[in-house]
Write a structure and sequence with these properties.
Number of strands: 2
Low-confidence stretches: 318-329
Strand order of the largest sheet: 1-2
Shape: globular
Oligomer: single chain
């Protein structure tokens, strides 16, 4: 039986929309993904996108109809097709469907940044010369995700009345390694907008600027959307005693103990390992603790069989209760459960390889070579940590661990 061509194209569309959701989730909530997992996912996604592109008008008609769903998977596919075709009218339809949804906005930015360099350059020219306000935001986000350095655009963006644009510019200056623009951030360090102030300080810290850490420290609480970003930088720049005091203080509060465990792992200091092992029986933070242990030592808990079963009494993931608003998977959902006694035995055998006070990432002292090795073979959060360390070591642009794998492999060589 011959399958109608429209049915095949619709399958490409459904598959691509679903695979984008998987790909987006792989970066945010799938810490067990490594480079090969991402490559496999990207290959499947790109195959379906190519099928839609080859289908031309039929493929676009299906994607345009899907925009009515207002979901990020459909936004990504529609945005990718419009961007690849360099068609402003089609892109405007996608922008209209995005509305004010943050996930949809991110999907559109990635749809643009997943294009080849020549297509990205074309869109940057379109956005820069347009008088459409909606294009100005896309321009700043696109060059940020694509690691394109533009002094003129960044300065203009910092002065924008659109606070969202100014925030992204402050962050992008750091991610792009634009040291020449640090002085332009100084007026925003004390901004009334806490997010803009945070990213201004964050960027200055990446270049070892001597700035007041108050804007970063105040985000170290359970309700802040910037909490993990804050601990990500503080754990790398504070000296031993200051960091130990801060993390020990965070560990005293159940709302911030998760941040303390993450910070211990990012610090890379084996000093924390005995304390981490002692907390591995606490089901509320055990998986976070296990990941912190692996971040320092490099041991794969599951591969080395240093794990225990999922606690029977602990509910995992979203449930089927329609009145329960907890529908998102937690950041630890796919992490293994460490077995305290087994991990302790492993540490007793291997601790002589580690020196308290020295920083390690995945079992190796932090160097350019060790970080590049993690980028090529580590799990996603380990790779993100390696990218940050390389920024501090060499003041290079932040390696884009969430970019399509073909672009990542070009940069990795």
């Amino acid at each position: 039986m011959t399958i109608p061509i429209n049915v095949v194209i619709e399958r490409h569309y459904d598959n691509a929309s679903f695979l984008w959701l998987q790909r987006d989730d792989a970066f945010h909530n799938q810490p067990h993904y490594d480079v090969e997992d991402l490559q496999e996912l990207d290959d499947r996604l790109e195959a379906n996108l190519d099928g839609l592109h080859v289908a031309s008008d039929v493929g676009w008609d299906i994607a345009e109809a899907g925009l009515k769903e207002g979901e990020s998977g459909e936004i990504f596919v529609g945005g990718w097709l419009a961007a690849k075709a360099c068609d402003e009218k089609k892109l405007d339809l996608v922008i209209e469907a995005v509305q004010e949804d943050e996930n949809n906005h991110r999907a559109l930015i990635f749809a643009l940044s997943w294009q080849k360099d020549s297509v990205i350059e074309t869109w940057c020219e379109v956005f820069q010369t347009s008088d459409k306000d909606k294009y100005h935001s896309l321009l700043v986000h696109l060059i940020a995700e694509s690691r394109i350095c533009s002094r003129e655009i960044m300065i203009k963006a910092l002065r924008s009345d659109n606070i969202r644009i100014a925030r992204r510019a402050a962050r992008a200056i750091g991610e792009n390694g634009q040291r020449d623009l640090l002085d332009k951030l100084s007026p925003f360090v004390g901004s009334e907008d806490k997010s803009l102030g945070f990213w201004s300080v964050w960027t200055k810290l990446l270049f070892s600027e001597d700035v007041n850490l108050a804007n970063v420290r105040r985000e170290l609480h359970g309700e802040s959307s910037l909490a993990l970003r804050a601990v990500d930088v503080i754990a790398r720049i504070l000296n031993g005693d200051s960091l130990r005091a801060l993390l020990q203080d965070l560990a005293k509060n159940e709302d911030t103990i998760h941040l303390a465990m993450v910070g211990a792992g990012l610090s890379g200091d084996p000093y924390w390992i005995p304390g981490l092992i002692n907390r591995m029986d606490d089901d509320s933070i055990a998986r976070t603790v296990g990941e912190a242990f692996s971040m320092i030592t490099g041991v794969d808990l599951a591969y080395e069989d240093l794990v225990r079963d999922h606690p029977d009494e602990l509910e995992s993931g979203p449930n089927e209760n329609p009145e329960d608003e907890a529908v998102d998977l937690g950041p630890d959902e796919f992490l293994p459960w460490p077995a305290r006694e087994l991990v302790a035995a492993w540490w007793d055998k291997n601790k002589s390889r580690f020196i308290s006070g020295q920083r390690y990432l995945c079992g190796q002292p932090i160097t350019k070579e060790s970080c590049e090795a993690v980028l090529k073979a580590g799990f996603q959060r380990q790779r993100a940590s390696a990218a940050m360390e390389l920024m501090f070591l060499e003041e290079r642009p932040l390696f884009p661990v969430n970019a399509p794998m073909w672009r990542q492999r070009l940069e990795l060589g």
